[in-house]
Amino acid sequence: MDLEKIQALMNQFEDSDLRELKIDDGDFHFYLSKNKNKISQQPIVKSTNPIEKTEQAKASTPKFATQNAKSVKAPIVGIVYLQAKPDQPAFVKIGDHVNKGDTICIIEAMKMMTEVKSDLTGTVTGVKVENEDLVEVGQPLITVEED
């Protein structure tokens, strides 16, 4: 498929009500999505006072953040669900202890639900995604301080 056809296809997709489009034709693979990742950003606060800078750094550091934490990463592309059902608690949250093999979330791809299991044992120090985020292969889902 040449560049002009791809551009025309992208324009038609943008004007349509479709949320995702995937084309596989031999060695040609094409994927478009209107689903957006939710990215939370901390506001940037500048200060010239060194005491204020130290206090701001302490306030923005998560309670369980460590330098030695390892990530459990997404094995597939899809929509992540942090709980089994909307009315149930999350599989894991910061401060929880997980064992190797524990389910940490579910990723939906093409109407297939895949349980993601931890390959680490330790304490959860961070949840790097929000419920219903679109995740990529290798994207960190949680961080764990190993025992």
Helix content: 10-25%
Low-confidence stretches: 37-47, 56-64
Question: Strand count, sense and closure of the main sheet?
Answer: 4 strands, antiparallel
CATH superfamily of the largest domain, please?
Answer: RNA polymerase II/Efflux pump adaptor protein, barrel-sandwich hybrid domain
Average predicted local confidence, pLDDT:
80
How many β-strand stretches? 10
H and E string: HEEHEEEEEEEE
> Which secondary-structure class do the elements indicate?
alpha+beta
Intertermini distance: 51 Å
Give me the number of helical elements: 2
Computed over alpha carbons, the radius of gyration is: 20 Å
Q: Which CATH C-level class of the largest domain is it?
A: Mainly Beta
Question: What is the third-level CATH name, the topology of the largest domain?
Answer: OB fold (Dihydrolipoamide Acetyltransferase, E2P)
Q: How many distinct folded domains?
A: 2
- What CATH architecture of the largest domain would you give? Beta Barrel
In what order do the strands lie side by side in the largest sheet?
3-10-8-5
Strand content: 25-35%
**Global shape:** elongated
Pathway: Lipid metabolism; fatty acid biosynthesis
Region (Disordered): 45-65
Domain Lipoyl-binding: 69-145
Keywords: Biotin, Fatty acid biosynthesis, Fatty acid metabolism, Lipid biosynthesis, Lipid metabolism
